[in-house]
């Protein structure tokens, strides 16, 4: 089971967003049968089976094992990932595009950049899985508390200067066989944990 799977197909995204199927995906972090799931979520086994078949057709669940129970075979299913992210690729015609309105201080532009990040990393993960390779990435996540808006603005300016200097130091346009990497740095208010 993957930690995170990226959903790029529109039909698969639609299937995953159905409330009953989303609940089944959550329950299937641990392998379970339609009978066991039906008892947990209060639906008839036949209805659970219908939803499981749909999830399986879209690659969101997979067969973990088959057990013989009397004169029938019970299928035990599990989710293919612990969590899922829907890529903007699933909404290709209306996916956010940071090139439309580049404004480093706009929350909507930040969201468009984040959407591109999800799309790009999703594509990289899909390609890497097909090639049985890993994706070389790096992420940094932290929190800073500013005393004033002026401090926040000064931090943003220093951060932009530091990152620009670092990129200029290591960027080599003439590197034969080199590979471009996207650098994304974002600052936004933290949402308090519940």
Shape: elongated
Number of strands: 5
Biggest sheet character: 3 strands, antiparallel
Cα radius of gyration in angstroms: 22 Å
Low-confidence stretches: none
Helix content bin: 40-55%
| pLDDT averaged residue by residue | 92
Return the structural class.
alpha+beta
Strand/helix succession: EHHEHHEEEHH
Q: Specify the number of helices.
A: 6
Distance separating the two termini: 28 Å
Total discrete domains? 2
Strand content: 15-25%
Q: Within the largest sheet, what's the order of strands? A: 2-4-3
How are the elements arranged and paired?
Elements: E1 2-7, H1 10-17, H2 19-27, E2 32-33, H3 34-41, H4 45-57, E3 61-69, E4 72-79, E5 81-86, H5 107-131, H6 149-170
Helix pairs in contact: 2-4, 3-4
Question: Can you walk through the features of this model?
Answer:
The mean pLDDT is 92. The strands form two sheets. Strands 2-4-3 form a three-stranded antiparallel sheet. The chain has six helices and five strands. With 194 residues, the protein is α+β, with helices and mostly antiparallel strands. The protein folds into two domains: 83 residues, Orthogonal Bundle (Arc Repressor Mutant, subunit A), CATH 1.10.10; 84 residues, no CATH class. It is elongated. β3 and β4 form a beta hairpin. α2 crosses α4 and α3 crosses α4. Helices cover 44% and strands 16% of the residues.
